[in-house]
């Protein structure tokens, strides 16, 4: 009988966030797969956990994934941990979970700390809906393409960013998305935890005066409203007449187009009547 793959969340800074269930799962696991075995060993030692560590990260996942899968199929229970936070969120744990599921292995999440949600709930911005984009691409060209693609997402956007790139990335966001409201959190749950709130331009000024330190989580407000595409410049009345010609009842066509163009149905109806009277 196959074993179970446990995705175990670990603290993102404060060791007090380690859950009793996570400690027990790591204690009971036959194997512990970790991104950084030295870092995970420190965590295990802190909680007096004895376990066999296996290295599994972004660079060796293609080779090590099948090895872990075979252990699971042989009946071993494996606890997968990331450097910090929840495995599978912007890390190679995602690939391992997919591989296990595809091969009929049970995957069990063991919840705990997560940087994205920690920053989001303290941001003061709407948390429903939200979009998690993780890290933007490293190259400027690819970042620009990604930001253009995500510009009109109808949700609060959460991104991760490194301190050495934070100002550059915010300047690119300002240029492409405009000066939106935002918040950022850094050194989350740690001694020097900081939450900052304001606009994108204000964040740039602040970070130019205060040397960025630690990993950042950016929480950025959604765009106010997407402008109409060229195709939406059609006269609403023409759209109504087209729907009627397609066999849609007049009342239904008026309601549909008025909603689509965000205009009063009565105004559209009056224009239609006037058009028909001219004919």
Characterize the structure shown.
The chain has 279 residues and is an alpha/beta fold. Helix content is 42%, strand content 18%. It has helices spanning 20-28, 37-46, 61-73, 93-102, 115-121, 140-150, 166-177, 200-209, 236-245, 250-261, 265-278, and strands at 4-8, 31-34, 53-55, 78-81, 106-110, 130-135, 156-161, 181-186, 194-199, 216-220. It is built from eleven helices and ten strands. The chain folds into three domains: 4-113, Tetrapyrrole methylase, N-terminal domain (Cobalt-precorrin-4 Transmethylase, domain 1, 3-Layer(aba) Sandwich), CATH 3.40.1010.10; 116-220, Tetrapyrrole methylase, C-terminal domain (Methyltransferase, Cobalt-precorrin-4 Transmethylase, Domain 2, 2-Layer Sandwich), CATH 3.30.950.10; 230-278. A five-stranded parallel beta sheet has the order 3-2-4-1-5, sandwiched between helices. The model has no long low-confidence stretch (mean pLDDT 90). The longest helix has 14 residues, at 265-278.
């Amino acid at each position: 009988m196959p074993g179970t793959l446990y995705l175990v969340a670990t603290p993102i800074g404060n060791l007090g966030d380690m859950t009793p269930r996570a400690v027990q799962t790591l204690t009971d696991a036959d194997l512990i797969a970790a991104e950084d075995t030295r870092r995970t060993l420190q965590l295990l030692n802190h909680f007096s956990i004895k376990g066999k560590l296996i290295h599994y990260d972004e660079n060796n996942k293609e080779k090590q994934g099948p090895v872990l899968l075979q252990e699971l199929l042989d009946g071993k229970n494996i606890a997968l941990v990331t450097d910090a936070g929840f495995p599978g969120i912007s890390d190679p744990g995602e690939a391992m979970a997919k591989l296990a599921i595809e091969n009929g292995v049970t995957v069990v999440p063991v919840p705990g700390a997560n940087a994205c949600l920690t920053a989001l709930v303290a941001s003061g911005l709407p948390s429903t809906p939200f979009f998690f984009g993780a890290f933007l691409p490293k190259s400027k060209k690819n970042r620009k393409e990604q930001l253009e693609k995500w510009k009109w997402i109808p949700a609060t956007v959460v991104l991760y960013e490194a301190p050495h790139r934070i100002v550059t990335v915010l300047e690119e966001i300002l240029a492409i998305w405009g000066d939106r409201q935002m918040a950022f959190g850094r050194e989350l749950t740690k001694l020097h935890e900081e939450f900052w709130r304001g606009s994108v331009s204000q964040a740039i000024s602040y970070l130019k005066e205060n040397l960025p330190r630690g990993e950042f989580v950016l929480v950025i407000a959604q765009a106010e409203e997407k402008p109409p595409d060229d195709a939406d410049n059609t006269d609403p009345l023409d759209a109504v007449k087209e729907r009627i010609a397609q066999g849609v009842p007049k009342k239904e066509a008026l309601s549909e187009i008025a909603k689509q163009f965000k205009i009063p149905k009565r105004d559209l109806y009056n224009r239609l009547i006037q058009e028909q009277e001219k004919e």
